[in-house]
């Protein structure tokens, strides 16, 4: 059985949406928002769509972002240094999806962000 090739048209459309959602997350964290639930919802949408489109590592990265933002929403604050790590992960995610749409290699920042967000 052959592996199905991802639909680059769908991924291309998702890349535009992902850029907007990632910019919302990064801007919110960079400006010190306390509305972590709104940011979690953005990460949740990214997680679901990336996973549905077969972008496993990118979906995993969005899932880690979502998990941290969920924890921040429950606590009312984000862990020290996590805001900058999630903001960087959002940029890496947007660039990773853009690369996937162009059928290019995954940017190294995706792996770096996965490692950072896995660290507790």
Gyration radius over CA: 14 Å
Instruction: Give the name of the CATH architecture.
Output: Up-down Bundle
Strand percentage: under 5%
Oligomer: single chain
Q: In this structure, how is the largest beta sheet organized?
A: none
Separate helix tally = 5
List its traits.
single chain, 120 residues, mainly alpha, Four Helix Bundle (Hemerythrin (Met), subunit A)
Overall description:
The protein has 120 residues and is mainly α. It is 76% helix and 0% strand. Helix 1 packs antiparallel against helix 4 and helix 2 (36-52) runs antiparallel to helix 3 (56-75). The longest helix has 23 residues, at 8-30. The protein starts with 7 loop residues before the first helix and ends with a helix.
Which helices and strands, and how do they pair?
Layout: H1 8-30, H2 36-52, H3 56-75, H4 82-101, H5 108-118
Helix pairs in contact: 1-2, 1-4, 2-3, 3-4, 3-5, 4-5
């Amino acid at each position: 059985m052959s592996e199905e090739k991802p639909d680059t048209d769908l991924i291309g459309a998702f890349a535009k949406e992902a850029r907007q959602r990632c910019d919302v997350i990064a801007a919110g964290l960079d400006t010190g928002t306390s509305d972590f639930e709104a940011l979690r919802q953005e990460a949740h949408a990214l997680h679901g769509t990336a996973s549905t489109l077969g972008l496993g590592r990118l979906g995993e990265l969005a899932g880690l972002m979502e998990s941290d933002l969920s924890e921040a929403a429950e606590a009312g604050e984000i862990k020290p240094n996590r805001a900058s790590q999630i903001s960087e992960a959002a940029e890496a995610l947007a660039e990773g999806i853009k690369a996937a749409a162009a059928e290019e290699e995954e940017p190294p920042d995706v792996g770096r962000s996965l490692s950072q967000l896995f660290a507790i």
